[in-house]
Amino acid sequence: MNTRAAEKPNTLKWAEIALLLGLAVFLASGAMALQTEQELSDRVVRLHVLANSDSEEDQALKLRVRDRVLAYVEPLLEGSADRREAEALLRGRLLELERVAGEEIRAAGYDYRVEARLEDTSFPTREYEGFTLPAGKYLALRLVIGAGAGRNWWCVVFPPLCAAAAEEVPAAALAAGLSREQVGLITEENQGYVLKSKLVEFWGEVRARLED
Fold first, then answer.
1. What distance in Å separates the CA atoms of residue 75 and residue 192, rounded to the nearest whole number?
2. Model confidence over 181-192: pLDDT tens digits?
3. Strand, helix or coil at 112?
4. Which of 45, 112, 114, 197 could form a disulfide with 101 if both were Cys (CB 3.0 to 4.6 A apart)?
């Protein structure tokens, strides 16, 4: 009997099993990462300011509008217990936000119209001072200035992390309802969280590409 011929099918069989197991682990990691991303995005509201164009003047105006909107929104959301409360407050103030932003635009000498929206928006992975948010779809307060064709500015308006110093980020995030694990994920407190963050980032970007 030819033992080599008998061993070859067995070798192929084990290789196929190993491949299937590897694929199962890969897909399971994706499901867990996407669930983690969803749980995180359910507790966050982004701020997204879109400039009229990439001209130096329009980019400077974008930052003026950002500062004015943050000065209005951060005290408004200060007492919000979670994202649901923050979202309700923002939805009730969209017209007021357009008025506030419009005043700043006119004070700068421009007549661009501005539109305030609160909508789900896909974001790539973004690093801030003291924390990183993985790619994914987040609820965003979006201020579109004029044509909205210029480089835009992103941050996190709830929890109030836009102006928070790096050492203040964990406390602000916990106060807004994020779990310690989620805070560890975005601040990358230890190597375990770093690995999980990278998995969430990878799978979030895969989903964003598929949706596009």
1. 35
2. 777 767 765 444
3. coil
4. 114
